[in-house]
Structure formats: C-alpha cells, structure tokens
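Narrative of activities, Objective 1.

The group set out to show that a structural description can be obtained from nothing but a protein's sequence at a throughput compatible with the screening campaign. Below is one input-output pair from the validation batch, recorded exactly as produced.
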Amino acid sequence: MFGHKEAARFTYLGLYALQHRGEESAGIFAFNGKKVSYHKGMGLVSDVFDEKTIKSLRGDVALGHVRYSTTGSSHSSNVQPFLASHKRGHIAIAHNGNLTNARELRQILEESGSIFQSTMDSEIIVHLLARSKDKDYKKNVTNALHELEGAYSMILMLDEILIGARDPYGWRPLCIGKLEGAYILASETCALDLINAKYIRDVEPGEVVFIDRGGLQSIKPFPRTKHASCIFEYIYFARPDSNIFGKNVYLVRKALGKQLAKESPVKCDLVVPVPDSGTFAAIGFAEESGIPLEMAVVRNHYIGRTFIQPSQFIRDFRVRVKLNPIKDVLKGKRIVIIEDSIVRGTTSRNRVRTLREAGAKEIHMRVSCPPIRFPCFYGIDFPSKKELIASNKTIGEIKDFIGLDSLRYLSLDGMLKAMPLPKDEFCTSCFGGRYPVGPPKRISKKMLER
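Output recorded for this entry:
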C-alpha cells in the first residue's frame, strides 16, 4: 500500500484475506521516509502479528507477504518480504511465482561476488537491482526483469517507491486498488474487499507500474507474447469471492461443475462437495444433474489448507482433523463426491475411507479438472511426476487406490470450454506437458520423467 498513514495496518488486514495463498510464514515492511521498520515470522498472519507489532510498523508505504514455498525451503531465512540495504537505499520484494532460470542466475551472481542470505529465487531479483549502475531506477527495474525467465507477479519497494510487475505470460494474478487516495497492489481482489478499497484494474501481463508521490505510471517493456494464465488459479488456488484475470472465480468453478455433470453423469442419491474448494463445482454439478446437494461433510475452519502443507505427514493429519462427515445424512446413501483436483491421491483416499466408515453405501467421485500428470515450474507445488498419482496410475488404478465405486475427470476440452477467457490464454502444462517456457535451466529433461 502506498500513501496512507495506516498502510501497515491495512496491509496486515489484506494478508488475512490472502492467507489461503500461503500458511508457512508472513511478514510486513513499512517505510516512513527515513527508515524501514519490519516484522516477520513463521506461521499464520494471526500468529506472527499482534497490535503491538502493527503499531511499530510506521509509515505510509507498506509491503506484506504470506508464503507457500515452491522454490526455497520452509525456513525462517526464506520469509518474505525480503529486504536488502545498499548505497542507494532499501530494496524489499514480495514475489509470487517461480523463476525457471534461477539456478543459472544465482551461479552467475555468486561467481561475480554476490553472497546470498536465503535459498529463494526472489533474492536473485534484489541482487540484480543492487548491482545495476544505472541511476534511473525505472531502467534498473526493467533491466533486472529482462534477465528473468518464468513466472512472477511481484511487488518491490524502493524506499518511497512502490512497484508492481507481472511477467509477459501473466501466470499469476496481480491487481490495483485505491482507498482514500492511496494505491494498493494485491494478488486477489478479496484483499481489496476486506478493507473496502475500490478495484481499479489488473496489472497486465508484461506491465510494470511505478507508484510514487506523483501517482501511478505504467510501462510495458516486453514484446507482446501469448498469455499463459495459470488455470489452476481458477480450479483451486484463488478464493471464490475474488476476480482474477478479470473474471469471478466462483462463477468459473460453478461452470466447471456444470460441464462435469454433462460429461460424466452418475446415478446417485446425493451430491456431496468437499469443502471448500470443491463446493462451488458441486453446486454447478447438482444444478445440472438435478441430484440434491447435501453439505454432508463439515469443515473445521481453524485448520488450514492441506494441499499447501510442506510434508505428507502434516497433510494426512490435517485431513483427519479438518473434515468430519455427518453420519445421519450419509448412512445407506449413494453419493458422488465433487473434488476440484487430485494431486497425490492420499488426501482423497483418507476422505473416502472416512465416508465409508460413516455409512455411505456407494461413493463415486467426479473431478472438475483433468488428471494432473506433469510438474509445474511456475509456482504451484507439483514438483515431480513421481508425486503425481495420475502420472503413475491409470484412472482405474486411481479409483481402486482411493477406494471408489467410480471415478471420472473433466476433459481438457470441457475444462477449457467452461473458462471465461479464450483457451489459448491459459497455461495447461500440468495436464498435457506443453510448457510455455522450458523447465528450469540446469535441470535435465530426466526431471520430467522422475
């Protein structure tokens, strides 16, 4: 946030709205024109901050981040925003995405004398900026961005200047808002809604916006290229009350459910959504199929998202604590579970076992996206094929592993048909293995086969 005396407090509230994007750590930097104050730590926003720390973050420019690690381990040294001080001032960065040439750039920088404090690819950007000899900070930023390959939506703070940038492919969302004359940059519009800010527009793919005392300036320093917005943002990652890539997430998930019902009908007594990300596809499935929808699985909202947890042990434990079936609704019923996706399969297996124990007579599953068979290198934690169940098992084998009576996935064509944007504007590499930008440099093609 730029230009509000309560910038840190509003940033803190915005991070609450964006907690679903990362639960490992949180941090906020603020600048009052003379010095930077900051606070960050491991855990949820509510664990890291209290009233005392918020009051200590003084200034009308603030930058905050919640982290879910894809590059760099879950460790205190990797908590963002990342801050560096150098002769021209302070540089802070909050980064969403993955740089595919991070290893190559890091090696080049280390060989020329750079010393890294973390394992994050985000720190590479700070080093590129600090090394630049150009006195024009806009040229410094654009020169650094031209060195990067892969996915990034990022916010930079150069003392009293706030900068937002998206890669030319537009993988990750980033929007612009205003509140009482102050500018806001955020991953999703739900953060704007929480603080009653007005949504202005998205930062466009390949656009860089500079916000200072003179207002907002925009440049587009990259050649125009075909967009590759992450389709998994619509399927799972973003909040349903957000508008990303210009369209509402809830409506897209509902459309996915309707298309799924058309492609894969089933004879059942009840449609049962898996809260929360499967709920909205289930609404669409129930409407299209005419099968009653029952919220027969209740979520404990004090437990976080299982998919983005850093270890399988924590994921399994949280599945047991997180969802509880209503036995009186399920007993003797044929049910169809609507899932947004199946990644490793273990979460779904545990859920189905619990539903069987609760008395469900038949359990069918319908999935509102195609099988995920390929790793993602752009910011979603699908690290290798060996961890993706659809890369190693047929749909029939997945059905048996999970313990289902039937299993069907939405087709690739059906998924794209339900999307609000032209199908060639999405990245679907996790389904088909066609990557808009190649895998990380210095990683052999064998990684795709692991």
